[in-house]
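Support request, please re-run this one:
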Amino acid sequence: MERIDKVISNQVGYSRKEVKELVKKKRVKVDGVIVTNSDIKVDTSINKIFIDDEELIFKKYVYLMLNKPKGYISATEDRSLPTVLDLIDEKYLHRNLFPAGRLDKDTTGLMIITDDGDFAHNILSPKKHVKKSYEVVIDKKITNEMVLGFRDGIKLIDGECKSSELEITGEYSGIVTLTEGRYHQIKRMFGCFGAEVVELNRISMGNFYLPEDLELGEFREFTEEELKKVVE
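Re-run finished. Output below.
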């Protein structure tokens, strides 16, 4: 059991002082009873806590999907550039959120923002073989030589890439699916064929695909079923 001021502070983001003020104004209830002391202890697995008659839903971890636009870096903070956390609503920022993986500043698409380190490790570890797919546009025609090269594994300075899939969708466009996350990997792989990536957009992780109705810069929480698709 934990003190109610600590519980509410951790879950909602109020300071302890603000929670005490809520209690003083009789705005906090536990199981329908008005709380008169902010240091009472509660068990969130049993007790129902309300602020202004709205029940608090307690979650151990938060999992957010973000449709990342260009211009944002995959970091929790930066002195000069906006980060993906700048796109997240303030009500989540009291938690220790971080991007699970990274997309380059000029790459768009699906990102997962969470505070669950084990989950992030599971989807990022090459040993877990979680596939990630990207729409790509390059500055020259995509060839069968590229398709075969991606399949056979391209050698980079930092090692040989695992076999990946390149599906041709147009003269200059395709979909790349891989299970690794090397630095600038897709750009460097195409660079081995003398091609430059013009556009790169992540569309899926595991068996979860970025929803079509999630606009650039928008985010929302995963449902349990959606989250399962990421690690299936």
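The two ends are 34 Å apart (CA to CA). Residues 4-12 form the longest helix (9 residues).
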